[in-house]
Automatic annotation (TrEMBL):
<comment type="similarity">
    <text>Belongs to the DNA mismatch repair MutL/HexB family.</text>
</comment>
<dbReference type="InterPro" id="IPR036890">
    <property type="entry name" value="HATPase_C_sf"/>
</dbReference>
<dbReference type="GO" id="GO:0005524">
    <property type="term" value="F:ATP binding"/>
</dbReference>
<dbReference type="Pfam" id="PF13589">
    <property type="entry name" value="HATPase_c_3"/>
</dbReference>
<dbReference type="GO" id="GO:0032389">
    <property type="term" value="C:MutLalpha complex"/>
</dbReference>
<dbReference type="InterPro" id="IPR013507">
    <property type="entry name" value="DNA_mismatch_S5_2-like"/>
</dbReference>
<dbReference type="InterPro" id="IPR038973">
    <property type="entry name" value="MutL/Mlh/Pms-like"/>
</dbReference>
<dbReference type="GO" id="GO:0016887">
    <property type="term" value="F:ATP hydrolysis activity"/>
</dbReference>
<dbReference type="InterPro" id="IPR014721">
    <property type="entry name" value="Ribsml_uS5_D2-typ_fold_subgr"/>
</dbReference>
<dbReference type="InterPro" id="IPR020568">
    <property type="entry name" value="Ribosomal_Su5_D2-typ_SF"/>
</dbReference>
<dbReference type="InterPro" id="IPR002099">
    <property type="entry name" value="MutL/Mlh/PMS"/>
</dbReference>
<keyword id="KW-0227">DNA damage</keyword>
<feature type="domain" description="DNA mismatch repair protein S5">
    <location>
        <begin position="221"/>
        <end position="341"/>
    </location>
</feature>
<dbReference type="GO" id="GO:0030983">
    <property type="term" value="F:mismatched DNA binding"/>
</dbReference>
<dbReference type="InterPro" id="IPR014762">
    <property type="entry name" value="DNA_mismatch_repair_CS"/>
</dbReference>
<dbReference type="GO" id="GO:0006298">
    <property type="term" value="P:mismatch repair"/>
</dbReference>
<protein>
    <submittedName>
        <fullName>DNA mismatch repair protein PMS1 isoform X3</fullName>
    </submittedName>
</protein>
Amino acid sequence: TTPSDSPTIKPINKGVVHRICAGQVILDLSAAVKELVENSLDAGATSIEIALKDYGKEWFQVIDNGCGISPNNFKVLALRHHTSKLVGFPDLQSLTTFGFRGEALSSLCALGNLTVETRTKNEPVATHLTFDHSGLLVAEKKTARQVGTTVTVKSLFSNLPVRCKEFGRNIRKEYGKLVSLLNAYALIAKGVRIVCTNATGKNAKSVVLKTQGSGSLKDNIVTLFGMSTFNCLEPVSISVSESCKVDGFLSKSGQGSGRNMGDRQFFFVNGRPVDMPKVTKLVNELYRGANSQQHPIAIMDFTVPTRACDVNVTPDKRKVFFSDESSILIALREGLQQIYSPNNARFSVNKV
Ligand code: ADP
Ligand code: MG
Protein backbone atom coordinates (compact mmCIF):
# COMPACT_ATOMS: atom_id res chain seq x y z
CA THR A 1 0.00 0.00 0.00
CA THR A 2 1.18 3.50 -0.76
CA PRO A 3 0.93 6.13 1.93
CA SER A 4 -1.85 8.63 1.27
CA ASP A 5 -0.98 12.21 0.41
CA SER A 6 0.34 14.27 3.29
CA PRO A 7 -2.52 16.55 4.40
CA THR A 8 -2.09 20.32 4.15
CA ILE A 9 -1.54 22.22 7.37
CA LYS A 10 -4.00 25.10 7.66
CA PRO A 11 -4.79 27.57 10.45
CA ILE A 12 -7.89 26.82 12.51
CA ASN A 13 -10.69 29.31 12.12
CA LYS A 14 -10.18 32.10 14.72
CA GLY A 15 -13.61 31.76 16.25
CA VAL A 16 -13.09 28.03 16.75
CA VAL A 17 -9.69 28.61 18.38
CA HIS A 18 -11.32 31.11 20.69
CA ARG A 19 -13.99 28.67 21.79
CA ILE A 20 -11.52 25.81 22.26
CA CYS A 21 -9.26 27.92 24.48
CA ALA A 22 -12.16 29.46 26.38
CA GLY A 23 -13.35 25.98 27.32
CA GLN A 24 -9.97 25.40 28.96
CA VAL A 25 -9.95 28.62 30.96
CA ILE A 26 -13.55 28.23 32.11
CA LEU A 27 -13.88 24.57 33.00
CA ASP A 28 -17.07 24.83 35.01
CA LEU A 29 -19.44 27.12 36.88
CA SER A 30 -17.10 27.71 39.79
CA ALA A 31 -14.22 28.65 37.46
CA ALA A 32 -16.48 31.19 35.76
CA VAL A 33 -17.69 32.81 38.96
CA LYS A 34 -14.17 32.74 40.43
CA GLU A 35 -12.88 34.88 37.56
CA LEU A 36 -15.58 37.50 38.14
CA VAL A 37 -15.03 37.60 41.90
CA GLU A 38 -11.30 38.00 41.33
CA ASN A 39 -11.96 40.89 38.94
CA SER A 40 -14.05 42.59 41.63
CA LEU A 41 -11.29 42.09 44.21
CA ASP A 42 -8.72 43.44 41.74
CA ALA A 43 -10.98 46.49 41.26
CA GLY A 44 -10.70 47.26 44.97
CA ALA A 45 -14.31 46.38 45.85
CA THR A 46 -15.30 46.30 49.53
CA SER A 47 -18.65 44.70 48.76
CA ILE A 48 -19.28 41.85 46.32
CA GLU A 49 -22.60 40.12 45.70
CA ILE A 50 -22.78 36.92 43.74
CA ALA A 51 -26.36 36.35 42.54
CA LEU A 52 -27.32 33.00 41.01
CA LYS A 53 -30.47 32.06 39.12
CA ASP A 54 -31.25 28.35 39.34
CA TYR A 55 -27.84 27.60 40.87
CA GLY A 56 -26.15 29.51 38.05
CA LYS A 57 -27.61 27.39 35.27
CA GLU A 58 -29.92 30.15 34.02
CA TRP A 59 -27.58 33.06 34.79
CA PHE A 60 -25.16 34.41 37.35
CA GLN A 61 -24.12 37.90 38.21
CA VAL A 62 -21.30 39.49 40.19
CA ILE A 63 -22.07 42.95 41.53
CA ASP A 64 -19.30 45.07 43.05
CA ASN A 65 -18.59 48.56 44.33
CA GLY A 66 -15.07 48.65 42.88
CA CYS A 67 -13.47 51.31 40.71
CA GLY A 68 -15.64 50.63 37.65
CA ILE A 69 -14.50 50.58 34.02
CA SER A 70 -13.86 53.82 32.17
CA PRO A 71 -15.56 54.41 28.79
CA ASN A 72 -12.30 54.37 26.84
CA ASN A 73 -11.95 50.69 27.82
CA PHE A 74 -15.42 49.55 26.74
CA LYS A 75 -14.46 48.43 23.22
CA VAL A 76 -11.46 46.33 24.29
CA LEU A 77 -12.91 45.08 27.60
CA ALA A 78 -13.77 41.58 26.43
CA LEU A 79 -11.07 41.11 23.80
CA ARG A 80 -8.71 38.22 24.35
CA HIS A 81 -5.40 39.06 26.05
CA HIS A 82 -6.48 42.61 26.85
CA THR A 83 -5.80 43.52 30.46
CA SER A 84 -5.13 46.58 32.61
CA LYS A 85 -2.99 44.49 34.98
CA LEU A 86 0.00 43.02 33.18
CA VAL A 87 2.16 44.96 30.78
CA GLY A 88 5.50 43.21 30.42
CA PHE A 89 6.89 39.81 31.28
CA PRO A 90 8.75 41.04 34.40
CA ASP A 91 5.36 41.95 35.93
CA LEU A 92 4.58 38.25 36.02
CA GLN A 93 7.25 37.82 38.69
CA SER A 94 5.74 40.31 41.10
CA LEU A 95 2.04 39.72 40.66
CA THR A 96 -0.24 41.32 43.19
CA THR A 97 -3.47 41.00 41.23
CA PHE A 98 -5.59 37.87 40.76
CA GLY A 99 -5.92 38.44 37.03
CA PHE A 100 -3.12 39.04 34.58
CA ARG A 101 -3.85 37.31 31.27
CA GLY A 102 -6.93 39.13 30.07
CA GLU A 103 -8.72 35.89 29.27
CA ALA A 104 -11.72 35.69 31.59
CA LEU A 105 -14.17 38.11 30.00
CA SER A 106 -13.25 37.05 26.49
CA SER A 107 -13.70 33.37 27.45
CA LEU A 108 -17.06 34.06 29.08
CA CYS A 109 -18.18 35.79 25.87
CA ALA A 110 -17.22 32.73 23.88
CA LEU A 111 -19.15 30.37 26.18
CA GLY A 112 -22.27 32.35 27.12
CA ASN A 113 -23.96 35.74 26.86
CA LEU A 114 -22.05 38.53 28.59
CA THR A 115 -23.38 41.92 29.64
CA VAL A 116 -21.67 44.50 31.84
CA GLU A 117 -23.02 47.50 33.72
CA THR A 118 -20.37 49.84 35.00
CA ARG A 119 -19.66 53.32 36.28
CA THR A 120 -16.49 55.01 37.52
CA LYS A 121 -16.44 57.94 39.94
CA ASN A 122 -15.85 60.27 36.97
CA GLU A 123 -19.11 59.31 35.23
CA PRO A 124 -22.50 60.75 36.21
CA VAL A 125 -24.36 57.63 35.02
CA ALA A 126 -23.56 54.01 34.32
CA THR A 127 -23.38 52.27 30.95
CA HIS A 128 -24.88 48.92 30.01
CA LEU A 129 -22.71 46.98 27.57
CA THR A 130 -23.57 43.92 25.48
CA PHE A 131 -20.86 41.74 23.91
CA ASP A 132 -21.05 39.06 21.22
CA HIS A 133 -19.41 35.63 21.30
CA SER A 134 -16.16 36.96 19.85
CA GLY A 135 -15.88 39.63 22.56
CA LEU A 136 -16.95 42.56 20.39
CA LEU A 137 -19.03 45.32 21.94
CA VAL A 138 -22.36 45.25 20.07
CA ALA A 139 -24.66 47.52 22.12
CA GLU A 140 -24.26 50.32 24.60
CA LYS A 141 -26.87 52.30 26.58
CA LYS A 142 -27.00 54.57 29.63
CA THR A 143 -28.47 53.26 32.84
CA ALA A 144 -28.63 54.08 36.56
CA ARG A 145 -26.10 52.54 38.92
CA GLN A 146 -23.75 53.40 41.80
CA VAL A 147 -19.99 53.42 41.13
CA GLY A 148 -18.86 49.84 40.48
CA THR A 149 -19.47 47.00 38.07
CA THR A 150 -22.05 44.28 37.48
CA VAL A 151 -21.12 41.45 35.15
CA THR A 152 -23.89 39.07 34.08
CA VAL A 153 -23.41 35.76 32.27
CA LYS A 154 -26.48 34.05 30.83
CA SER A 155 -26.59 30.47 29.57
CA LEU A 156 -23.02 29.46 30.33
CA PHE A 157 -21.78 26.69 28.00
CA SER A 158 -24.76 27.07 25.63
CA ASN A 159 -22.01 27.28 23.02
CA LEU A 160 -20.40 23.93 24.00
CA PRO A 161 -23.18 21.31 23.66
CA VAL A 162 -21.49 18.46 25.55
CA ARG A 163 -20.37 20.63 28.46
CA CYS A 164 -23.77 22.28 28.56
CA LYS A 165 -25.51 18.91 28.96
CA GLU A 166 -23.03 17.88 31.68
CA PHE A 167 -23.56 21.21 33.41
CA GLY A 168 -27.32 20.67 33.51
CA ARG A 169 -26.95 17.11 34.76
CA ASN A 170 -24.44 17.95 37.50
CA ILE A 171 -25.82 21.29 38.57
CA ARG A 172 -26.08 20.46 42.28
CA LYS A 173 -22.49 19.20 42.34
CA GLU A 174 -21.26 22.25 40.43
CA TYR A 175 -23.15 24.46 42.83
CA GLY A 176 -21.58 22.69 45.84
CA LYS A 177 -18.13 23.25 44.39
CA LEU A 178 -18.95 26.91 43.80
CA VAL A 179 -20.15 27.44 47.37
CA SER A 180 -16.97 25.87 48.73
CA LEU A 181 -14.90 28.14 46.50
CA LEU A 182 -16.85 31.22 47.55
CA ASN A 183 -16.24 30.24 51.17
CA ALA A 184 -12.52 30.35 50.39
CA TYR A 185 -12.73 33.91 49.04
CA ALA A 186 -15.10 34.99 51.82
CA LEU A 187 -12.61 33.71 54.42
CA ILE A 188 -9.51 35.31 53.00
CA ALA A 189 -10.84 38.58 51.54
CA LYS A 190 -10.33 40.80 54.56
CA GLY A 191 -12.37 43.97 54.70
CA VAL A 192 -14.61 42.79 51.85
CA ARG A 193 -18.27 42.00 52.42
CA ILE A 194 -19.19 38.94 50.37
CA VAL A 195 -22.76 37.74 49.86
CA CYS A 196 -24.01 34.92 47.67
CA THR A 197 -27.68 34.47 46.87
CA ASN A 198 -29.60 31.95 44.80
CA ALA A 199 -33.11 32.12 43.35
CA THR A 200 -34.81 29.04 42.00
CA GLY A 201 -37.90 28.99 39.79
CA LYS A 202 -40.36 31.65 40.87
CA ASN A 203 -39.03 31.80 44.45
CA ALA A 204 -37.43 34.89 45.94
CA LYS A 205 -33.65 34.76 46.33
CA SER A 206 -32.22 33.21 49.48
CA VAL A 207 -28.85 33.91 51.08
CA VAL A 208 -26.31 31.13 50.56
CA LEU A 209 -23.42 32.70 52.46
CA LYS A 210 -22.56 36.07 53.86
CA THR A 211 -19.66 37.86 55.57
CA GLN A 212 -19.62 41.31 57.14
CA GLY A 213 -16.39 42.68 55.66
CA SER A 214 -14.34 42.19 58.79
CA GLY A 215 -10.59 42.64 58.70
CA SER A 216 -9.85 39.40 60.53
CA LEU A 217 -9.77 35.78 59.44
CA LYS A 218 -11.17 34.77 62.82
CA ASP A 219 -14.30 36.91 62.35
CA ASN A 220 -14.82 35.49 58.87
CA ILE A 221 -14.55 31.92 60.19
CA VAL A 222 -17.07 32.67 62.94
CA THR A 223 -19.48 34.36 60.50
CA LEU A 224 -19.29 31.56 57.94
CA PHE A 225 -19.03 28.44 60.11
CA GLY A 226 -20.26 29.52 63.57
CA MET A 227 -18.66 30.09 66.96
CA SER A 228 -18.86 26.44 67.99
CA THR A 229 -16.82 25.43 64.94
CA PHE A 230 -14.31 28.17 65.63
CA ASN A 231 -13.90 26.95 69.21
CA CYS A 232 -12.71 23.59 67.87
CA LEU A 233 -9.85 25.28 66.02
CA GLU A 234 -6.33 26.10 67.07
CA PRO A 235 -4.38 29.01 65.55
CA VAL A 236 -1.23 27.93 63.71
CA SER A 237 1.75 30.03 62.82
CA ILE A 238 4.76 28.27 61.36
CA SER A 239 7.82 30.00 60.06
CA VAL A 240 9.55 28.32 57.13
CA SER A 241 12.30 30.86 56.50
CA GLU A 242 12.86 34.56 57.00
CA SER A 243 10.56 35.47 54.14
CA CYS A 244 8.14 32.55 54.20
CA LYS A 245 5.51 31.60 56.78
CA VAL A 246 2.17 29.88 57.24
CA ASP A 247 -0.68 31.27 59.33
CA GLY A 248 -4.13 29.93 59.90
CA PHE A 249 -6.33 27.60 61.88
CA LEU A 250 -6.51 23.83 62.25
CA SER A 251 -8.86 21.50 64.11
CA LYS A 252 -7.63 20.72 67.59
CA SER A 253 -6.53 17.13 67.63
CA GLY A 254 -9.52 15.78 69.56
CA GLN A 255 -12.05 17.99 67.83
CA GLY A 256 -12.19 17.19 64.15
CA SER A 257 -15.28 15.95 62.39
CA GLY A 258 -16.54 12.47 61.64
CA ARG A 259 -17.32 13.42 58.08
CA ASN A 260 -14.79 14.12 55.36
CA MET A 261 -13.75 17.75 55.66
CA GLY A 262 -12.73 18.23 52.01
CA ASP A 263 -15.07 21.23 51.74
CA ARG A 264 -13.62 22.77 54.90
CA GLN A 265 -9.97 22.66 53.95
CA PHE A 266 -8.72 25.91 52.45
CA PHE A 267 -5.23 26.75 51.29
CA PHE A 268 -4.02 30.15 50.20
CA VAL A 269 -0.79 31.55 48.84
CA ASN A 270 -0.44 35.26 49.50
CA GLY A 271 -4.20 35.47 49.92
CA ARG A 272 -4.94 33.60 46.68
CA PRO A 273 -7.05 30.42 47.03
CA VAL A 274 -5.11 27.53 45.47
CA ASP A 275 -4.98 23.74 45.36
CA MET A 276 -2.08 22.33 47.36
CA PRO A 277 -2.34 18.53 47.09
CA LYS A 278 0.96 17.81 48.89
CA VAL A 279 0.16 20.13 51.78
CA THR A 280 -3.40 18.78 52.02
CA LYS A 281 -2.05 15.25 52.17
CA LEU A 282 0.49 16.17 54.83
CA VAL A 283 -2.06 17.91 57.07
CA ASN A 284 -4.47 14.96 56.86
CA GLU A 285 -1.71 12.43 57.42
CA LEU A 286 -0.35 14.14 60.54
CA TYR A 287 -3.84 14.73 61.89
CA ARG A 288 -4.63 11.05 61.42
CA GLY A 289 -1.58 10.25 63.55
CA ALA A 290 -3.20 12.05 66.48
CA ASN A 291 -6.82 11.19 65.74
CA SER A 292 -7.55 8.28 63.44
CA GLN A 293 -11.35 8.63 63.67
CA GLN A 294 -11.85 12.18 62.50
CA HIS A 295 -10.93 14.70 59.82
CA PRO A 296 -9.57 18.20 60.40
CA ILE A 297 -10.73 21.60 59.27
CA ALA A 298 -7.73 23.41 57.79
CA ILE A 299 -7.41 27.07 56.84
CA MET A 300 -3.83 27.93 55.98
CA ASP A 301 -2.39 31.01 54.31
CA PHE A 302 1.18 30.81 53.01
CA THR A 303 3.10 34.05 52.77
CA VAL A 304 5.79 33.61 50.13
CA PRO A 305 7.83 36.22 48.22
CA THR A 306 6.04 36.73 44.89
CA ARG A 307 9.32 35.96 43.10
CA ALA A 308 9.48 32.54 44.75
CA CYS A 309 6.20 31.25 43.38
CA ASP A 310 4.58 30.92 39.97
CA VAL A 311 0.80 30.96 39.63
CA ASN A 312 0.81 30.94 35.84
CA VAL A 313 0.89 27.15 35.69
CA THR A 314 -2.63 26.14 34.71
CA PRO A 315 -5.34 28.12 32.89
CA ASP A 316 -7.43 28.29 36.07
CA LYS A 317 -4.46 29.57 38.14
CA ARG A 318 -5.29 27.10 40.93
CA LYS A 319 -1.89 25.41 40.81
CA VAL A 320 1.30 27.01 42.10
CA PHE A 321 4.97 26.19 41.71
CA PHE A 322 7.32 27.09 44.54
CA SER A 323 11.01 27.62 43.98
CA ASP A 324 11.65 25.76 47.23
CA GLU A 325 8.70 23.48 47.90
CA SER A 326 10.70 20.90 49.84
CA SER A 327 11.75 23.28 52.62
CA ILE A 328 8.14 24.42 52.94
CA LEU A 329 7.00 20.82 53.35
CA ILE A 330 9.78 20.01 55.83
CA ALA A 331 9.05 23.04 58.02
CA LEU A 332 5.34 22.34 57.83
CA ARG A 333 5.82 18.73 58.87
CA GLU A 334 7.87 19.78 61.89
CA GLY A 335 5.40 22.48 62.87
CA LEU A 336 2.40 20.19 62.53
CA GLN A 337 4.12 17.37 64.36
CA GLN A 338 4.58 19.69 67.32
CA ILE A 339 0.95 20.71 67.21
CA TYR A 340 -0.38 17.17 66.87
CA SER A 341 2.11 15.49 69.14
CA PRO A 342 0.19 13.61 71.87
CA ASN A 343 2.43 15.27 74.45
CA ASN A 344 1.48 18.75 73.40
CA ALA A 345 0.18 20.41 76.56
CA ARG A 346 -1.82 22.93 74.57
CA PHE A 347 -4.55 20.38 73.87
CA SER A 348 -6.69 18.04 75.79
CA VAL A 349 -6.21 15.19 73.37
CA ASN A 350 -8.98 12.65 73.38
CA LYS A 351 -7.05 9.51 72.63
CA VAL A 352 -9.06 7.27 70.36
P1 ADP B 1 -7.64 40.14 33.67
O1 ADP B 1 -8.35 40.10 34.99
O2 ADP B 1 -6.63 39.05 33.52
O3 ADP B 1 -7.05 41.50 33.39
P2 ADP B 1 -10.27 39.86 32.52
O4 ADP B 1 -10.74 39.35 31.21
O5 ADP B 1 -10.77 39.16 33.73
O6 ADP B 1 -8.70 39.86 32.50
O7 ADP B 1 -10.67 41.40 32.63
C1 ADP B 1 -10.22 42.31 31.63
C2 ADP B 1 -10.11 43.72 32.19
O8 ADP B 1 -11.43 44.22 32.47
C3 ADP B 1 -9.38 43.84 33.52
O9 ADP B 1 -7.98 43.95 33.31
C4 ADP B 1 -10.00 45.08 34.12
O10 ADP B 1 -9.34 46.25 33.66
C5 ADP B 1 -11.41 45.09 33.57
N1 ADP B 1 -12.41 44.56 34.55
C6 ADP B 1 -12.99 43.35 34.55
N2 ADP B 1 -13.86 43.21 35.57
C7 ADP B 1 -13.82 44.37 36.25
C8 ADP B 1 -14.49 44.86 37.43
N3 ADP B 1 -15.37 44.11 38.11
N4 ADP B 1 -14.21 46.14 37.84
C9 ADP B 1 -13.31 46.90 37.16
N5 ADP B 1 -12.65 46.49 36.05
C10 ADP B 1 -12.89 45.25 35.59
MG1 MG C 1 -9.71 38.69 35.52
